[in-house]
């Protein structure tokens, strides 16, 4: 294709709103343009990359036995009400009404739509298993669209849904999609981890995120370089390296409090934070039990963690098998706990308050806790003796230095971009939507469902985020908009122009996807644009055109190689890009 025929509006300067390398380079390279916050147009080169990613996805999904379809983007509210998500999904769901006042939503996800379709069309176990997928635009009213394609309000997604008759069948479908996703991300050139994750608003049981490692990622991943354990920090299990019994020690005595003495009321005027309490009592944060007041499915819960750790609300939700977890307001703390912010503690709480404890505090024998009255704390408190524990488990967020739960080696924490997610939904949607089939005994049973998503447009940004240098993008050859960028150093030199035209035809006949830069621009401008666009191989027809010699350079290399034009096609094919 000729560059003079394409819309490639490259920019010399970074866009003012770009916060990431992928965003600034994709805008500067003329791949995307913003229409509104979180809403982008794909220009010709950007669309070619998108199509290459789509091709890889389709090939691997088809190879895994899935079949493609296309579902509506406009959903009647009745479907979402059947599943219970019309009210649960929240403000991210873009809602609208037609001229008759009937409520609709633009598809943020398609569990309801696919369940409705299969419910109406599949009646027998003989049609199972079945996996259907689509590539389609999704709409979510993000509170803060940012990072270009990484967090948008309109984006392209590949979503797939499996339908099985049994749990064992769902396990097989899940494994098949997990393997297909691994193949997709490998072919796209992504460095990624498959990590245990929370199912969020989609729901379900077993779930894994595929996370592209990147310093600008919004997810934090805890992983072990020794045994391969990996999980989103929301779910990561860990073993603290200092798991010894903790006692509350006073610096003035130098000795632990006597556990048998029981709780002692201590004045702590204007001391509300962990940092203030450690300084005032001359103790370590690990000697404090931090009490966090929550509303879990609307009911009062006080969650307990050591003072040197952070509570993980996702783990609280999973421990209590809840749908929602929110922080209590100051008014709720007073009304439901009879306490005060900064002085909340578990001692004396009534039976209507659930006390959930992190397992690290169970062995503490003389801890410091809030006294539920202003300016006072209790010292010498022992869990189980001085207050009840209704539920316990791992409730802390993993931190560097924690040990892997499998092999006890130190965990690594890295940032990442979620590019794919696979879920075992089970009957979360089929039961409330009455989606059933007849089994081999003629008995109706709900479908066992799985859900599998890839953020296709986000994947483009993740690839660019991992593959760039100071000059621009360095596309992996599998997704690059073209394989070869053929540049005429001087378009006013007839010899150069004639040779470039000859090579352009030869490369195309050889099946090589080539972009010919035939613009009347200075060579320096063409080279800068070529680096910015990131096409894997650059061929320059320059001063040695009359000798039948051109320069050939891989985008990731600093030096070019002189190649005779008769050997050019074979040389390009031999390059590892």
From TrEMBL:
Cell compartment(s), UniProt: Cytoplasm
Coiled-coil stretches: none
Ribonucleoprotein among keywords: no
Catalytic activity: tRNA(Pro) + L-proline + ATP = L-prolyl-tRNA(Pro) + AMP + diphosphate
A Pfam family this chain is assigned to: HGTP_anticodon
Region listing for Disordered, in residue ranges: 241-268
BP GO terms, sorted: prolyl-tRNA aminoacylation
Top class in the EC scheme: ligase
Keywords associated with the record: Aminoacyl-tRNA synthetase, ATP-binding, Cytoplasm, Ligase, Nucleotide-binding, Protein biosynthesis
InterPro entries from the UniProt entry: aa-tRNA-synt_IIb, aa-tRNA-synth_II, aa-tRNA-synth_II/BPL/LPL, Anticodon-bd, Anticodon-bd_dom_sf, Pro-tRNA-ligase_IIa, Pro-tRNA-synth_IIa_bac-type, Pro-tRNA-Synthase_IIa_type1
Chief location: cytoplasm
EC number: 6.1.1.15
Domain Aminoacyl-transfer RNA synthetases class-II family profile: 38-476
A cellular-component GO term for this protein: cytosol
Family: Belongs to the class-II aminoacyl-tRNA synthetase family. ProS type 1 subfamily.
Function, as annotated: Catalyzes the attachment of proline to tRNA(Pro) in a two-step reaction: proline is first activated by ATP to form Pro-AMP and then transferred to the acceptor end of tRNA(Pro). As ProRS can inadvertently accommodate and process non-cognate amino acids such as alanine and cysteine, to avoid such errors it has two additional distinct editing activities against alanine. One activity is designated as 'pretransfer' editing and involves the tRNA(Pro)-independent hydrolysis of activated Ala-AMP.
Family matches, as HAMAP family: Pro_tRNA_synth_type1 (MF_01569)
Complexes and interactors: Homodimer.
Domain notes: Consists of three domains: the N-terminal catalytic domain, the editing domain and the C-terminal anticodon-binding domain.
Protein name (database record): Proline--tRNA ligase
Organism: Paenibacillus oceani
Upper classification of the organism: Bacteria, Bacillati, Bacillota, Bacilli, Bacillales
């Amino acid at each position: 294709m000729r560059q003079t025929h394409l819309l490639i509006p490259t920019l010399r300067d970074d866009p003012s709103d770009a916060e990431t390398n992928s965003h600034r380079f994709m805008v500067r390279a003329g791949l995307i343009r913003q229409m509104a916050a979180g809403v982008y147009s794909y220009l010709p080169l950007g669309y070619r990359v998108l199509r290459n990613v789509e091709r890889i996805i389709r090939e691997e999904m088809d190879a895994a036995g899935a079949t493609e379809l296309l579902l509506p983007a406009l959903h009647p509210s009745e479907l979402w009400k059947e599943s219970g998500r019309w009210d649960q999904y929240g403000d991210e769901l873009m809602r609208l009404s037609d001229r008759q006042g009937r409520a609709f939503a633009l598809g943020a996800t398609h569990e309801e739509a696919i369940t409705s379709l299969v419910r109406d069309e599949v009646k027998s176990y003989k049609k199972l298993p079945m996996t259907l997928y689509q590539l389609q635009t999704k709409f979510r009213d993000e509170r803060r669209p940012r990072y270009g394609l990484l967090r948008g309000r309109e984006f392209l997604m590949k979503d797939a849904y499996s339908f099985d008759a049994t749990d064992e069948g769902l396990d097989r479908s899940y494994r098949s999609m997990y393997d297909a996703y691994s193949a997709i991300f490998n072919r796209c050139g992504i460095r990624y981890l498959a990590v245990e994750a929370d199912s969020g608003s989609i729901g379900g049981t077993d779930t894994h995120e595929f996370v592209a490692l990147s310093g600008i990622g919004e997810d934090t991943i805890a992983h072990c370089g020794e045994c391969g354990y990996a999980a989103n920090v929301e779910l990561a299990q860990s073993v603290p390296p200092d798991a010894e019994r903790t006692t509350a020690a006073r610096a003035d005595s130098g000795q632990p409090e006597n556990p048998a003495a029981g709780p002692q009321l201590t004045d702590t005027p204007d001391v509300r934070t962990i940092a203030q309490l450690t300084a005032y009592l001359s103790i370590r944060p690990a000697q404090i039990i931090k009490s966090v007041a929550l509303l879990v499915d609307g009911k009062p819960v006080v969650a307990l963690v050591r003072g040197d750790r952070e509570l993980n609300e996702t783990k609280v939700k999973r421990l209590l098998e809840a749908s929602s977890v929110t922080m209590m307001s100051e008014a709720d703390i007073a009304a439901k706990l009879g306490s005060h912010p900064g002085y909340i503690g578990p001692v004396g709480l009534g039976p209507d308050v659930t006390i959930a404890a992190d397992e690290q505090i169970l062995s503490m024998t003389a801890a410091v806790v809030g006294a539920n009255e202003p300016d006072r704390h209790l010292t010498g408190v022992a869990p189980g003796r001085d207050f009840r524990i209704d539920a316990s488990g791992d409730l802390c967020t993993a931190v560097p230095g924690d040990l892997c739960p499998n092999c006890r080696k130190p965990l690594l924490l890295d940032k990442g971009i979620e590019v794919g997610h696979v879920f075992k939904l089970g009957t979360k949607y089929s039961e409330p939507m009455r989606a059933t089939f007849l089994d081999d005994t003629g008995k109706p049973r709900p479908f066992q469902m799985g859900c599998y998503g890839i953020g296709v447009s986000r994947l483009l940004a993740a690839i660019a985020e991992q593959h760039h240098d100071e000059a621009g993008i360095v596309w992996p050859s599998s997704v690059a908009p073209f394989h070869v960028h053929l540049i005429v150093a001087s378009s006013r030199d007839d010899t150069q122009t004639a040779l470039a035209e000859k090579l352009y035809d030869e490369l195309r006949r050889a099946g090589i996807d080539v972009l010919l830069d035939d613009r009347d621009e200075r060579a320096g401008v063409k080279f800068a644009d070529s680096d910015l666009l990131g096409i894997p191989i650059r061929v320059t027809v320059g001063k040695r055109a009359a000798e039948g010699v051109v320069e050939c350079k891989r985008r990731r290399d600093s030096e070019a190689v002189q190649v005779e034009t008769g050997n050019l096609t074979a040389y390009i094919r031999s390059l590892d890009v």
